[in-house]
Amino acid sequence: MPNSHPPPAHQRRARNSRDMPRRSRSSREYTHDPKADATVPPHSSAGQKHHRGLHLPQYNHNGHRVTPGIQPDGESGRRGFHPFKFLQICFRSNSFISKWVNLLWPIVPVAIALHFARPDLPLAIFVTNYIAMVPAANMVGFAGSEFARKLPKVLGVVVETTFGSIVEIILFMVLLKTGGDQNVQVIRSAILGSILANMLLCLGFCFVAGGLLGGEQVFHEAVSEAGSGLMLVAGMGLVLPTIYYNALNGRTDLTIAGGESEIADEMLKISRATAIILLAAYLVFLFFQMKSHDNLFAEIYEADELVDKDRHEELAKPKLTLTECIVALVISLACVSMIAVFLVLQIPYMVEERHISDAFVGLILIPVVEKFAEHLLAIDEAYDGQMNLALAHVLGASIQTALLNTPLVIIVGWGLHINMDMKFEIFDSVSLILAILVVGSFLRDKKSNYLEGTLCIFVYLIIAVAAFYYPNPAGHGGGGGHGEEAAPAGEHH
């Protein structure tokens, strides 16, 4: 006879508990998709929130455990400061040419000692310090690149370019502080000369280095158009105060109460207002590059790294630790600062006694040595096929000079009561605008070859020859042909 009584309560509970996982699992399947988490990269913001409770170690290509906050490409696998390893890595540097430049380091103490021991040899002091600036600036560039490896890609490129501009900022500030109004003309020439050296000389060598072995180089329009467009706007902002002054100066059909001095005062005010506007434009550019469009630039730079011809060697190279990067930057910046002071102190002697024009010193001599490390880095990247990174460093350095360094030196001069303005020579201004137009025409098709690079270098050489014979302004320097007798060499020490 079948049992009509219900099963005991404990049996019902056991059966219900056996069925519970199946029902519970089915419920979870409808309310939660496990694939959703798998699609979230661990390094993204959403992935970080999801994996906040996990502390799995990350390892880079060399098997080194990655320190939190450090990018895998910049992880050295060491901590602290190791003198022998530090010297070994710094000497090897980041390229073949940069490595051989480090052989000039013995000249650095010689140049510094010569300034104090033999102040009666101004030519020797100028030459030795000019050469000593090359390895010191090279070390700034290398330490900056090692530091940039440890940062996110877009931020790293900006920081690396900024470290390259530190040498220029130091030179401008030393010129401004030591010479005051007397060095204003040299600073003006150096501002435009730095832009010309980047856009013509450095970019030309990049096109040649990339084109000789790789044929035709292709780069992304976001890098070329943003850079060339900003340079055209910056060039217009730099030369407009000069156009204003020359358009009004000497006019007989206008009645100006203060005459030429009134025009100069108003032009100084226009220069300071323009400096503030250019500085604001640089901040907008930083926001565009690092915030609103950072994903675009990061993809471009990462794609460039993948086509690097010697990427496996770069990844396998020993890296500096964060502490060693800071030590290298402190040492190199200290050397650059001292050398810049000693070099600048001899400029009056070179202009007045050796009859080298202000235009040549500012447009050619100073920019070539101050931008040497940055040029080596960009040329090496172009040689490896990384044209977008090379363009980012070349155009980025030019943009920083026009939109950051120039406003800074004008604002600092304002604070020091020095009439630092944008009254550039017509020769310098026209050279700048023509150079921007030439480079813009080469970048328009988003391709480059060694012919375009050679033409850029030739344009720079033409400007250099013209600057060498360009006379000094009236009452400044001894080579201007104004009948002024040069002062004795001993008075300029």
TrEMBL record:
<dbReference type="Pfam" id="PF01699">
    <property type="entry name" value="Na_Ca_ex"/>
</dbReference>
<keyword id="KW-0106">Calcium</keyword>
<feature type="transmembrane region" description="Helical">
    <location>
        <begin position="325"/>
        <end position="347"/>
    </location>
</feature>
<feature type="transmembrane region" description="Helical">
    <location>
        <begin position="195"/>
        <end position="214"/>
    </location>
</feature>
<dbReference type="GO" id="GO:0000329">
    <property type="term" value="C:fungal-type vacuole membrane"/>
</dbReference>
<feature type="compositionally biased region" description="Basic and acidic residues">
    <location>
        <begin position="16"/>
        <end position="36"/>
    </location>
</feature>
<feature type="domain" description="Sodium/calcium exchanger membrane region">
    <location>
        <begin position="326"/>
        <end position="468"/>
    </location>
</feature>
<feature type="domain" description="Sodium/calcium exchanger membrane region">
    <location>
        <begin position="123"/>
        <end position="290"/>
    </location>
</feature>
<feature type="transmembrane region" description="Helical">
    <location>
        <begin position="123"/>
        <end position="142"/>
    </location>
</feature>
<feature type="transmembrane region" description="Helical">
    <location>
        <begin position="226"/>
        <end position="247"/>
    </location>
</feature>
<feature type="transmembrane region" description="Helical">
    <location>
        <begin position="450"/>
        <end position="470"/>
    </location>
</feature>
<keyword id="KW-0472">Membrane</keyword>
<keyword id="KW-1133">Transmembrane helix</keyword>
<keyword id="KW-0812">Transmembrane</keyword>
<protein>
    <recommendedName>
        <fullName>Vacuolar calcium ion transporter</fullName>
    </recommendedName>
</protein>
<keyword id="KW-0926">Vacuole</keyword>
<feature type="transmembrane region" description="Helical">
    <location>
        <begin position="426"/>
        <end position="443"/>
    </location>
</feature>
<keyword id="KW-0406">Ion transport</keyword>
<feature type="transmembrane region" description="Helical">
    <location>
        <begin position="154"/>
        <end position="175"/>
    </location>
</feature>
<dbReference type="GO" id="GO:0012505">
    <property type="term" value="C:endomembrane system"/>
</dbReference>
<feature type="transmembrane region" description="Helical">
    <location>
        <begin position="100"/>
        <end position="117"/>
    </location>
</feature>
<dbReference type="InterPro" id="IPR004837">
    <property type="entry name" value="NaCa_Exmemb"/>
</dbReference>
<dbReference type="InterPro" id="IPR004713">
    <property type="entry name" value="CaH_exchang"/>
</dbReference>
<keyword id="KW-0813">Transport</keyword>
<feature type="transmembrane region" description="Helical">
    <location>
        <begin position="267"/>
        <end position="288"/>
    </location>
</feature>
<keyword id="KW-0050">Antiport</keyword>
<dbReference type="InterPro" id="IPR044880">
    <property type="entry name" value="NCX_ion-bd_dom_sf"/>
</dbReference>
<feature type="transmembrane region" description="Helical">
    <location>
        <begin position="389"/>
        <end position="414"/>
    </location>
</feature>
<comment type="similarity">
    <text>Belongs to the Ca(2+):cation antiporter (CaCA) (TC 2.A.19) family.</text>
</comment>
<dbReference type="InterPro" id="IPR004798">
    <property type="entry name" value="CAX-like"/>
</dbReference>
<keyword id="KW-0109">Calcium transport</keyword>
<comment type="function">
    <text>Has a role in promoting intracellular calcium ion sequestration via the exchange of calcium ions for hydrogen ions across the vacuolar membrane. Involved also in manganese ion homeostasis via its uptake into the vacuole.</text>
</comment>
<feature type="region of interest" description="Disordered">
    <location>
        <begin position="1"/>
        <end position="74"/>
    </location>
</feature>
<dbReference type="GO" id="GO:0006874">
    <property type="term" value="P:intracellular calcium ion homeostasis"/>
</dbReference>
<dbReference type="GO" id="GO:0015369">
    <property type="term" value="F:calcium:proton antiporter activity"/>
</dbReference>
